[in-house]
Design goal:
With 242 residues, this protein is an alpha/beta fold. It has 9 helices and 10 strands. The chain has a 5-stranded mixed β-sheet with strand order 2-1-3-4-8, sandwiched between helices. Strands 5-6-7 form a 3-stranded parallel β-sheet. Strands 9-10 form a two-stranded antiparallel sheet. Helix 1 (12-19) crosses helix 9 (205-212).
């Protein structure tokens, strides 16, 4: 099988680790982490990369996105004419780094925008904790109700406006790719910021299964050619085919 991976470079170490062990041919392309600050721009860039891969004479068997909804950046992305698109059922990169959406719900249910960090965030951004993703793009509550319905709008609005004082600095630790030196630096910054340093155990299960072609319906959405990704904004399905 031949796959094209389009990933945020926050996952660069994890993706490369898993691809090195994949039985398939996998071509990699990484997007800069800074694109997250403008979800419309990131969506446009991702669509451009999907269209390029779909038209590539390599004739990929699938285009794999190492992204979640990521502030609505993948909502509305369309698969090309011939190549399916596959992505994790994930709200953001925390789910992917933890390796399971159930763990994301366990640790982030009370505040889905809870700041956290990881090897990739610490190495490739200008902040030691992840800045909040822009989930609604500045839409009003009424706009959200019109577009997503009352229940989903309530979830989105609560998430967008949840900004409690957070005494912890959380770090998702994947031991295979994260050095003790980096974790010690993070802990020192957290202490200087008067925050309790909390390490959550991460896992590359989702990335590994993605690049191995093991797309269990619970964990992954397969978007057939010509169809698009639609956000569901719940804890279980997260995304659907539209």
């Amino acid at each position: 099988m031949k796959y094209k991976v389009i990933a945020c470079n926050v996952f660069l170490r994890e993706v490369c680790y898993c691809v090195a062990r994949s039985p398939h041919r996998v071509d990699l392309e990484f997007m800069h982490i800074g694109e997250h600050v403008d979800s419309d721009r990131l969506r446009s860039l991702l669509q451009e990369k999907i269209d390029e891969a779909d038209a590539n004479p390599e004739n990929y068997d699938a285009i794999l996105l190492v992204y979640g909804l990521c502030g609505n950046s993948t909502n509305g992305l369309k698969a090309g004419k011939k190549t399916p698109v596959v992505l994790p059922r994930a709200h953001d990169c925390a789910t992917i780094l933890l390796g399971d959406k159930a763990l994301f719900e366990k640790h982030f249910k009370d505040n889905p925008s809870l700041p956290f960090s990881s090897n990739g965030y610490y190495e490739r951004s200008d902040y030691y904790l992840r800045a909040e993703d822009s989930i609604t793009g500045g839409a009003s509550y009424d706009d959200l109700v019109k577009e997503y319905g009352e229940d989903n709008a309530a979830f989105l609005w609560e998430t967008m406006n949840a900004k409690p004082e957070e005494p912890r600095a959380m770090f998702i630790d994947i031991p295979e790719v994260t050095s003790d030196e980096l974790k010690n630096k993070f802990a020192a910054e957290a202490e200087a910021d008067n925050k309790e340093c909390v390490f959550l155990k991460g896992c590359m299960r989702l990335i590994d299964n993605l690049v191995r072609g093991q797309w269990d319906e619970r964990d992954f959405l397969v978007v057939p050619p010509g169809k698009k990704i639609v956000g569901k904004y719940d804890w279980e399905d997260v995304v659907d085919v539209g």
